[in-house]
Amino acid sequence: MGHPPIKRYFAAEQIRVAEEATGRLLADGVLMRRAASGLAGAVAAELRSRHGAVYGRAVTLVIGSGDNGGDALFAGAVLRRRGVAVSAVLTAPDRAHAAGLAAFRSAGGRVVDGVPDTAELVVDGVVGLRGTGPLREAAAAVFAQVRVPVVAVDVPSGVDADTGVVHDPSVRAEITVTFGARRIAHALAPAACGRVEVVDIGIDADGARVEMLSDRDVAEGWPLPGPASTKYTQGVVGVIAGSDRYPGAGILCSAGAVAATSGMVRYVGSAAATVVDHFPEVVVAPDLDGAGRVQAWVVGPGAGTDDAALELLRRVLATDVPVLVDADGLTVLAHHPELVVERHHPTLLTPHDGEFERLAGRSPGHDRLSAVRGLASALGATVLLKGKVTLVADPGGEVLVNDAGNSWAATAGAGDVLSGIAGALLAAGLSPRVAGAAAARVHALAADLAADGAPIGASELARAVRPAVRSLRAVR
Ligand SMILES: NC(=O)C1=CN([C@@H]2O[C@H](COP(=O)(O)OP(=O)(O)OC[C@H]3O[C@@H](n4cnc5c(N)ncnc54)[C@H](O)[C@@H]3O)[C@@H](O)[C@H]2O)[C@@H](O)CC1
Ligand SMILES: [K+]
Known about the structure:
Blueprint: E1 7-10, H1 12-20, H2 24-27, H3 30-51, E2 58-63, H4 67-81, E3 85-90, H5 98-106, E4 110-112, E5 121-125, H6 137-144, E6 150-153, E7 175-179, E8 182-183, H7 184-188, H8 190-193, E9 195-199, E10 210-212, H9 215-221, E11 236-240, H10 247-260, E12 264-268, H11 272-278, E13 283-285, E14 296-299, H12 307-317, E15 323-325, H13 328-335, H14 338-341, E16 347-349, H15 353-360, H16 368-379, E17 382-385, E18 389-393, E19 399-403, H17 414-427, H18 432-451, H19 458-463, H20 465-474
Parallel strand pairs: 1-8, 2-3, 2-5, 3-4, 5-6, 6-7, 7-9, 10-19, 11-12, 11-14, 12-13, 14-15, 15-16, 16-17
Antiparallel strand pairs: 1-10, 17-18, 18-19
Helix pairs in contact: 3-4, 4-5, 10-11, 10-17, 13-15, 17-18, 18-20
Bound molecules: ligand NAX and potassium ion.
Potassium ion binds at residues 68, 124-128, 152-155, 157.
């Protein structure tokens, strides 16, 4: 077995603590040499894969005022000795890392005023863990001219390591090479970071609170029928969605639930006849009294925001089974937050940005991590904030992240499918955080498979849920 499958992401302070725990290794510059050697190896590998060789290629470093630049300069010295033509632009010439600059110069590295036209790769060593705000003027002017791939040291400069906020301007990297453990920005700003490579420098970071399930985690945790399973033991999910006016939400939400697991789906609401037309396996009832037992409820998509909807939401949240609230249910909840605040059973809220704003009284803004944690803590419920990067936060601040990697699911009704999938997983016994993150992964994969390069509607996405689960299981 190699690395543990779950990916963990650390705050800058946690990395600092881990570095300090190495004592002399840090003080004597051993950590930095290890970091630089790993960085040089990654740059060399990239040159080889792009140009077939390392010797004779041309790389330019862009250097700031701290140890991030030190990493790049020491790596430049290593590359120079391997026959690479390495130059460096110093954006703060008086404050460049002194030992790194000396090593770079003595290896034959040249200091230049701007990135030469001959550069085939640029290394971003402007700022790392201590960066705040956007790229400053000198570095921004240099990167504005760069047309070749960028390898970022630790984090792309201008991207906040702890929040993943991508400031403007900032560096957009093809590859980010980091040290010892992943930073939170790597999960939250995947488009700016590109491919992330972790160099082992012999530190042990601890206590990650931001994590990402691997495909293997999702596949292994996905509920499948076993030898002793019955329709009941796999979890019955109740769907309260859609209405005469919006029957589609009931159909799509049921579609997600039916496809996700082999447990049973019950439907409650006025679109019952239409839902059964589409899915004869769904057991329907016109109202809650006739619904029968479930192991989890999904309530809200297209279900209306009137007094009857409020009453239904109140009754569902008063049960002791896990409840997922989405869409119209969230709008109702925004006026009655006490319904979840006072609830002591697993609860998953799945807002998009607009619904988040209704619930929280402000938009998630750029720092989505703090925003989602804040709302989860305030409401005492798990909150899944939708987006290309979906964040699922528990009230205690633990967060699972999912990067969809595509935007095909940005289509009407896709959210209804997501809540159906997540609801089925809740009914099967997954925790709200894992159910939300696993559903988001399969949903994104289903969108990608269904789209295959062309736009899709939510029905096609729902039909691809099974192929998506199958493909995750195939990579185990
Ligand atoms: N100390 C060590 O032994 C190790 C350090 N590491 C490297 O050291 C980095 C951290 O180094 P530092 O603590 O010196 O901090 P940085 O190199 O991240 O930042 C240095 C300075 O940049 C300035 N700055 C902040 N925001 C800026 C912006 N937007 N534009 C321009 N300048 C800005 C600040 O004045 C700050 O003092 C890590 O990211 C990593 O690359 C790694 O080599 C691992 C080992
Ligand atoms: K950097």
